[in-house]
Amino acid sequence: MVTLKQLAKELGVSISTVSKALNNSEEIGEDTVRRVKELAELYNYKPNKVALSLKNNKTKTIGVIIPNILNRILAKVLFGIETEAAKHGYNIITCISNESLEKEKQSLQLLANGSVDGFILSVAEETQINNEIEHFKKTISQGLPIVMFDRVAHDVMCDKVIVDDFDAMYNATKSLLKEKRKNIVFISNINDLSVGKLRERGYNKAILEHGVQEPLVLKIKRKKDDHQKKIKSFLKKNRTVDAVIAADSSSGVIALNTAINLGLKVPKEFSVIAFASKSDSNHTIPKLTTIRQHAKEIGVSAAQMLIARMQNLPASADVKTKIVKTSIVKNKSTL
Amino acid sequence: MVTLKQLAKELGVSISTVSKALNNSEEIGEDTVRRVKELAELYNYKPNKVALSLKNNKTKTIGVIIPNILNRILAKVLFGIETEAAKHGYNIITCISNESLEKEKQSLQLLANGSVDGFILSVAEETQINNEIEHFKKTISQGLPIVMFDRVAHDVMCDKVIVDDFDAMYNATKSLLKEKRKNIVFISNINDLSVGKLRERGYNKAILEHGVQEPLVLKIKRKKDDHQKKIKSFLKKNRTVDAVIAADSSSGVIALNTAINLGLKVPKEFSVIAFASKSDSNHTIPKLTTIRQHAKEIGVSAAQMLIARMQNLPASADVKTKIVKTSIVKNKSTL
């Protein structure tokens, strides 16, 4: 087995240069990094991970724990974390809590055992319901910083990245009122989640301030209801409805397709706007006007905050909460 | 710090029982596992991961490397792996290669360093294009088994789980021919991937056997083309086309919505069938007939194969390739 010392000798540089180059340190020039890595590869050099982590106490790895891999927003946040981490020479390893408190604890323990320098996570549903926070506090007290995003535990003192769900829905509803829509229905299949409730409140506030109509809400049960049937029969029964604002992409896409199926002219006589992704919007005709969450940016911000924290850059012990603003991307489903 | 020995003494069981219980061994009864874990938790017992892995050479952790977290099928496979691994008391940690050969190598190295007992992975696009396999061979020769799924490297001797892409498309095309469709176009935005090529060949075979039309193929470049425009102008120019078979869900959903937008009656005069998920199909009107990939089952199978391999259950050194069959879910976009 070749050692760092032997590599350094052969390359005519210091041991510390070799070590830093192998860890993608920004102090070392690109050329040197490449030379060091090529020689290390040639000799099949294996850094002793344990020795390394005992010595400099850095793994250059971020642990990410997400509650649900099938959630597209979470997948995109992960993509953002990955992209930003790579820029700074950090690897990420990811565990999935599957919305389970027990799995979340296990994942923290598994990775806290010398594999990572810190965590980025979104809290599991079960953890939120039970209001458990001890495992987070324990991890932080072990010297491993945590950055939480989207679903955060307010009682844990750590950096956080959240979305302005309330304002986003308030502003989107106001944009429909400006189009002179007179009977706007709020449709949601995420009413059991905290973000779903915030979005409904944003809609309510805009409607009540305006004072022309009462709030009109259609709630879909994700696992029980036939989404298409429910929206179709609602729109058939409520012929005066002239706009839909949806808290989730499924409700938005289905409402748009249903309106067209019922012969309504979109956007001339009927508008649709929804929390949705660019790809959702590219699949409908006309293209759906969307409230974008900038999930990638959430991930990028979380990674930046954690990396700064791990490098002790915020000199103070104060914690920060960053709000990533949504934006409305105007397409052809609104005037 | 409390030791295994002290825990064993207090519980009146053997050290090996404590160790096995902490590692969720199936040899130990549930009750004992619970008692051991409770006491370990009480004393805040920390297994020395390195010592453990040196001693019994087992981390009870599976490393998963996936090329792209934004791909829904891959996310579902990951969900299947997670579910099956948890059943057998295995944790999983996941790295994302982002379709990059370099990242894939890094991830293998990162995790091979004592963090996992074996790997489940789908090969990155760049790796496939460069036909690189040395890093896989190296990992296997270090005693860490690999199971590949979906995008596999045929020249690496290891267990594999694949989908019957060729047969799936052959059969789906035949089902359109049975509907007496006379001009079926194959649309794909994944023609640069091996699975995309297999799907095209399945379509070609069915069309050539039938002999009524020539193969008609529309290829979409994922990053360059305006997907909607390209499909719309194609369908406008080719008015005799009476069916679309799509290799990917975006092409399928857009083709269906475009046909309706052009005033075609689906499925009376125009059929659409696509590789897509249940949720894609639930969003269109009429609901899309789909070729389902059973992504979760792919993950479950891969996890089962790897766990068997890690426990040396296949006594022989032979490797297996498991084929997970797709199925056609008939909906209202075909006759």
TrEMBL record, chains A, B:
InterPro entries: Cro/C1-type_HTH (IPR001387), HTH_LacI (IPR000843), Lambda_DNA-bd_dom_sf (IPR010982), Peripla_BP/Lac1_sug-bd_dom (IPR001761), Peripla_BP_I (IPR028082). GO terms for molecular function: DNA-binding transcription factor activity; transcription cis-regulatory region binding. The keyword Transcription regulation applies. Keywords: DNA-binding, Transcription, Transcription regulation. Residues 2-56 form the HTH lacI-type domain. It comes from Algibacter lectus. This is LacI family transcriptional regulator. SUPFAM superfamilies: lambda repressor-like DNA-binding domains, Periplasmic binding protein-like I.
